[in-house]
Amino acid sequence: MGNVLRSVGLDVGTTSTQLIVSELTVENRAGSFSVPEMAIGDRKILYKSPVHFTPLLRGELVDGEKLRTMVAAEYEAAGISRESVDTGAVIITGETSRRENAATVLRELAGFAGDFVVATAGPDLESVLAAKGSGAVALSEETGKRVLHMDIGGGTSNLALIENGAIVSTGCLNVGGRLVKFDENRTVTYVSPVLRGLCPLRVGDAVTEEALEQVSGVLVRALEMAAGLRSREALLDGLTTAGTFMEPPEEDVILSFSGGVADCIGRDHPWRAYGDLGPILGRTIRESALCRGEYVLGRETIRATVIGAGCHSAQLSGSTVFHRNVVFPLKNLPVVQVPEQLQRESGLGTFLHSAYIKQEATPVIALPGLQSPDYGSIKALASAIAQAKLPGPIFLCLEQDMAKALGQALALLLPQEQPILCIDRVRLEAGSYLDVGAPVGPALPVVIKTLILNR
């Protein structure tokens, strides 16, 4: 039996908010006389909250106070406390991530939900979590087939192309069930700005089934283009979420669906059931080219992203790590990425010093590392880093397995009181953030985050 981590996943979406509690088992996959190789083994869901409507204030602003009360009640229902949480993720997704108070809500929930529960958002990460949480990644791995997963929520559709169990590209479209909303009197109360020029309805209009079918038809054409089932037109570019892009697959794929709208693909709901576009959008997808070939509904549909957040956001560093005078957990470390060629050049120290002082918070320096380095190479790299004269803690993250040796070399060159952290076997990209938890055996739990809050 390995060490066990308790993980929380919280998804604050355009339409719904959900929470899960899961148990992650950490195991050593190396042999008895080998360097430990720690990995997340079994993942078991302990608790699933009901699906709550995301509480809103005036207009479309998230009500942070009600959200906090909701989470507190779910913690009590699950029988957990802040102190018992080891890892996890708070995800704010879809159109909700565009709200002007999204960053404030995220910070509040991250602090409330436990020391290592993280606040994160971004269409790329949401695509990855939904693809994992829905079972689409497992489907590709089990069958060896290419899978295009579409997580269709209230405001956006997050796409992930998967080959042999690996996600090779992601994208996001402004296609979702809550882009049009209406009240019990069938009066339109909201039309998303992304539908400008595409929707015949305006706020205050009387909604009709025919008008919703017209809007759904436009949105489904964009999904068909994204799946490579229809020739590309300007419509696809117009509905692509800013900062995201994915080439439509050129070969046949299995289509996989999750999200709230996926529940409306599998079975009919009255078109007025939820006061939005969802039921008709689901029906239109079912009747389109998207469902004429091989397709599946995810093992999880509306809960796919939150299960991904609760069960798949954490990973482990390599086991040969080095840390000195570091107080865990570390949260929201901005990534400074070092180009590979710069590792061996004299300008490394100048580059690091300049990049370090530009950050508002202490950054983590991401280095490719050296493959099978000798002692001289490690000593030279440590010397270049020490010459940067970084004013605070030095946090290093390497792709190659050399963290312990580099950390020990640095410790000989830097003041004894200066904190040092070296981890490896983790790949970081510029624009990301990193959380690092307290050691689990010889390894460290980490969460890589992409904080892209579309305004």
3D architecture notes:
- There is one protein chain.
- With 455 residues, the protein is of the alpha/beta class.
- The protein is built from 12 helices and 21 strands.
- It has helices at residues 64-78, 102-112, 123-134, 136-143, 209-226, 234-239, 262-266, 278-286, 304-312, 348-358, 375-386, 403-411, and strands at residues 3-12, 16-28, 38-48, 52-53, 87-92, 118-120, 147-152, 157-163, 166-173, 180-182, 188-191, 254-258, 295-297, 315-316, 322-324, 330-337, 364-367, 394-398, 420-424, 432-436, 445-450.
- It has an 8-stranded mixed beta sheet. Strands 1, 2, 3, 4, 5 and 6 form a 6-stranded mixed beta sheet that branches. Strands 9-8-7-12-13 form a 5-stranded mixed beta sheet.
- Helix 2 (102-112) links the parallel strand 5 and strand 6.
- Helix 1 runs parallel beside helix 2.
- The longest helix has 18 residues, at 209-226.
- The protein is elongated and about 75 Å long.
Helical content band: 25-40%
Please report the distance between the alpha carbons of the first and last residues. Answer: 46 Å
Q: Would you tell me the overall average pLDDT?
A: 82
* Major sheet characteristics: 8 strands, mixed
* Rg: 23 Å
Compact overview of the structure:
With 455 residues, the chain is of the alpha/beta class. Helix content is 27%, strand content 26%.
List keywords for this structure.
alpha/beta; eight-stranded mixed beta sheet; 12 helices
Itemize the secondary structure elements and their pairings.
Layout: E1 3-12, E2 16-28, E3 38-48, E4 52-53, H1 64-78, E5 87-92, H2 102-112, E6 118-120, H3 123-134, H4 136-143, E7 147-152, E8 157-163, E9 166-173, E10 180-182, E11 188-191, H5 209-226, H6 234-239, E12 254-258, H7 262-266, H8 278-286, E13 295-297, H9 304-312, E14 315-316, E15 322-324, E16 330-337, H10 348-358, E17 364-367, H11 375-386, E18 394-398, H12 403-411, E19 420-424, E20 432-436, E21 445-450
Parallel strand pairs: 1-5, 5-6, 7-12, 12-13, 16-17, 17-18, 18-19
Antiparallel strand pairs: 1-2, 2-3, 2-4, 7-8, 8-9, 10-11, 14-21, 15-19, 16-20, 20-21
Helix pairs in contact: 1-2, 3-9, 5-8, 11-12
